[in-house]
Amino acid sequence: MSVNVINDATLAAIGSSIETLYEKARDGVEDNLAGKVYNERKTNKSMVAIRSLDGFGLMREFKSERQPGIVGEAITVATPVKWERTIDVKREDIEDDDYGYITDLANSVGVASKRTPIAEIAKALMKGFTTQLSDGNYFFSAAHGNLQSGALNASNLQAALDKIAAQTDANGGALAFQGKVLVVGPSNTSAAKSLIETETISGTTNIYYKALDLVISPFITDNSWYVVDNAEGVMPLLLVMRVAPDKIVARDETNSDRAFDKDIYSWGTRGRFCAAYHNYKLIVGSTGS
Fold first, then answer.
1. Considering only 52-56, 90-94, 193-197, which range has the smallest mean pLDDT?
2. For 89, what's the count of Cα atoms within 13 Å in the CB-facing half-sphere?
3. In sequence order, what are the beta bridge partners of 251?
């Protein structure tokens, strides 16, 4: 059997197939935390100061002059982190027409490129009970009025809803926030569905039936749960995106060092992003214990 010719056209065809599979895999990944827990903020900086803003509440009476809202101190500093996934194809596999495995690899890399930012948001949620902001308090804390204790049940859910509703602006005025979304991991799926998707509980009308949107994230790997107001145009968390991992880059030149020294051609994706805390008043969290 003749050896397959490896030239720029051969490698370009393989790269085109990888790119198509990669993009299709990305498109197939559901992100159920976007618009529920976080917004994406693009940046061209290596570090981003996330600042508080007294922009909620009601209008002020216009008296002698306007009173602009004040941008507060930075609550945290976000530093986008570098991420990568790479596909290697051996020269002999191309020669032997034995590189069908790139389908699985391209799919895997495409899925990973979409899921990794989502997983980072979920990790930030879980770490919010032990991560300090610039005010010296944890993101979820009694000082912020957004820390709930206990397992997910009716009484604790109501307490969490009450805490969001009790948030005030800088002048002590009611913000009128309301819990709209219940976010849980797999371990709390049954409890959440019993609360949100059951019309009656023990023969009594369930007042929480369809009262909140239920979001189940596989990346929340502990017993924590969260109540969020996602209707204010601002989210509790941000995905700070410096470079989106939405492209495949090739190192497939027939005379590249890697091809010459190792008989390997590579295609890969990279990104720079991180999860960051934004507005703690829009979320209440419990560790589940």
1. 52-56
2. 30
3. 266
Helix/strand number for the chain, H first, E second: 6, 14
| Domain range list for the chain | 8-55+72-286
Q: From CA 198, how far away is CA 54, in angstroms rounded?
A: 38
Beta strands in the chain (DSSP E): 38-42, 48-53, 71-78, 81-90, 147-148, 181-184, 200-201, 204-205, 213-216, 225-228, 237-243, 249-251, 264-277, 283-286
Beta-carbon contacts of residue 249 (< 8 Å; ≥ 6 apart): 267, 268, 269, 270
Tens digits of residue pLDDT in 167-204: 998 778 899 999 999 999 999 999 999 999 999 988 89
- Angle at CA 101, nearest 5°, toward 100 and 103? 85
Distance CA 48, CA 219 (A): 25
Domain made up of 8-55+72-286: CATH architecture: Alpha-Beta Complex (3.90)
Beta-carbon contacts of 248 under 8 Å, excluding residues fewer than 6 positions away, are 15, 18, 19, 22, 109, 267, 268, 269
